[in-house]
Design goal:
The protein is α+β, with helices and mostly antiparallel strands and 182 residues long. The protein has a domain of 127 residues. The chain is built from 6 helices and 7 strands; from the N terminus they run ααββαααβββββα. The chain has a 5-stranded antiparallel beta sheet with strand order 3-4-5-6-7. Strands 1-2 form a two-stranded antiparallel sheet. It starts with 13 loop residues before the first helix and ends with a helix.
Length: 182
């Protein structure tokens, strides 16, 4: 049995816990039972109520990323595909690289945390825009197909100039440098 632990943006165990989470699809977890371990015996207690995720108000990047697995086919009311385990895991690797960058350059996480959202074309969007990024905006797209390249869109607000392209996950630091080192 896989153990689901609390998902926190302060934890360093994202991938291990998410792998366990995705091994047990959300449909199965909705009616799961809370397990209590007492002297190596597992005892079933009351059902754990499942709350639906609040996509509008919850801005925690990691929670938004994890809950992409909950979205069914056609989640947008049209033809948006379900997000795959491999795609979400690839996005988690990008997320972890962003956190590593934040720690390495001692940048407060709240200042560099991306907004993460599902896209109806099946990609996962990482976005930096708004008040925190008034001079430059960055969008990163994690495509549905694992064989497809990661894509970015850099916007320099002052120059009214967009640059788009493809990149490897190992190049995320270059994009973040462009965003924060003005």
């Amino acid at each position: 049995m896989a153990t689901i632990t609390s998902f926190s943006s302060n934890s360093n165990v994202y991938s291990d816990n998410l792998y366990s989470y995705l091994d047990n699809p959300p449909e199965l977890l909705r009616n799961s039972y809370e397990l209590v371990q007492i002297n190596t015996l597992n005892i079933c207690s009351s059902p754990v109520p499942e709350k639906s995720f609040d996509w509008k108000d919850n801005q925690n990047a990691f929670q938004r990323l994890v809950h992409l697995a909950d979205l069914p086919d056609k989640w947008d009311g049209y033809s948006a595909p379900k997000f795959s385990r491999h795609q979400i895991n690839r996005a988690i690797e990008i997320f972890q690289s962003i956190q590593d960058y934040s720690k390495e350059f001692k940048i407060d996480w709240k200042k560099i945390e991306p907004f993460i959202a599902p896209s109806s074309n099946g990609s996962i969007l990482f976005e930096w825009s708004g008040k925190r990024f008034a001079l430059r905006n960055l969008e990163i797209y994690v495509p549905l197909e694992i064989k497809q390249s990661l894509e970015y869109l850099k916007t320099d607000i002052g120059l009214n100039h967009d640059i788009e392209g493809e990149f490897q996950a190992s190049q995320i630091s270059d994009l973040l440098d462009w965003l924060v080192k003005i």
